[in-house]
Design brief:
Blueprint: E1 8-12, H1 16-29, E2 32-36, H2 42-48, E3 52-55, H3 64-74, E4 79-84, H4 89-98, E5 102-105, H5 110-133, E6 136-138, E7 141-144, E8 149-152, E9 155-156, H6 161-172, E10 177-179, H7 180-188, H8 198-213, E11 217-223, E12 227-234, H9 237-242
Parallel strand pairs: 1-2, 1-3, 3-4, 4-5
Antiparallel strand pairs: 6-7, 7-8, 8-9, 10-12, 11-12
Helix pairs in contact: 1-5, 6-7, 6-8
């Protein structure tokens, strides 16, 4: 059976016979397959830019459920397929609820495994395209993933591909504080090296372009020591909230004699509603 797309897959399994046959069929199909006999850290899976992960959780013992949970949470776009020995209904239900896309029981024919992997990868790709095709609106911005561009009114922002991916990621997670490390993994595709300031540099460039075209709105907010949050707000609100309160004047001795009429005093324009 011919396969319709090239797929990048990682296999975590110690069944050498099954893995060898699967690897040969994947090569014929034009897929890229990497194999490990032990758990691969989710950060490394991000760097591998996979379409699917095939795993036998029996290898992980007591850590199996927590590992599946971490992978499903950190890589929601990754197709996750379990291929293991006997399992109970409760185990399969638990896995599917954690985020496993498909569950196979060994012994499994490599051709069936290939078909299931392809089906899972296809569903994820289709869902991703459907989401990406829908424009996002925020403040004066319209973000068009189908064009890899953002607009203020009908005027496009001059964004690089990386700047657009950063903006789109932040806008998709509107209202959520994203850690720098997570942003780097999602946009750059691999773990951030210690001391790397790329996220901060790109956020600064993106802010400058947003402020130039949409000066009446603030879009990206800094959470110092953590990361960034996307939330369109009228410009000046955040700065006003962070400004230290003015010190109250020191009390004065009560004055004797006639006092000026309060209605005739000048009110400083800083405190007027206008």
């Amino acid at each position: 059976m011919p396969y319709t797309a090239s797929i990048r897959i990682a296999v975590i399994d110690t069944d050498s016979g099954f893995v060898t046959v699967l690897a040969k069929r994947a090569e014929v199909a034009g897929w890229s397959l990497s194999h490990s006999s032990g758990p691969v850290p989710p950060r490394d899976l991000v760097a591998m830019k996979l379409n699917a992960l095939l795993i036998d959780p029996a290898l992980l013992g007591d850590e199996a459920w927590s590992y599946l949970d971490r992978v499903a949470s950190m890589l929601p776009e990754l197709g996750l397929v379990v291929c293991t020995g006997r399992s109970t209904v409760a185990q399969r239900v638990r896995g599917l609820r954690l985020g496993v896309d498909d569950w196979m029981t060994k012994p499994s024919h490599p051709e069936e495994a290939m078909a299931r992997i392809e089906a899972v990868a296809r569903r994820h790709t289709r869902g991703r395209r459907e989401v990406e095709s829908a424009p996002l609106t925020a403040g004066e911005l319209e973000i068009r993933p189908d064009r890899f561009q953002a607009f203020v009114g009908k005027e496009p922002l001059e964004l690089t591909r990386r700047e657009f991916e950063l903006l789109y990621l932040l806008a998709e997670e509107r209202g959520q504080v994203l850690e720098r490390e997570k942003i780097y993994q999602r946009v750059w595709g691999y773990a951030m090296a210690h001391g790397d300031r790329s996220v901060d540099v790109f956020v600064r460039k993106l802010r400058q372009k947003l402020e130039k075209r949409s000066p009446s709105w603030a879009y990206i907010h800094t959470h110092f020591g953590i990361g960034y949050r996307f939330e369109p707000e009228p410009a000046g609100i955040v700065e006003e909230e962070l400004r230290p309160a003015a010190a109250e004047p020191a009390p004065t001795e009560p004055q004797h004699g006639p006092q000026p009429d309060p209605s005739s005093q000048i009110v400083h324009k800083t405190f007027t509603a206008g």
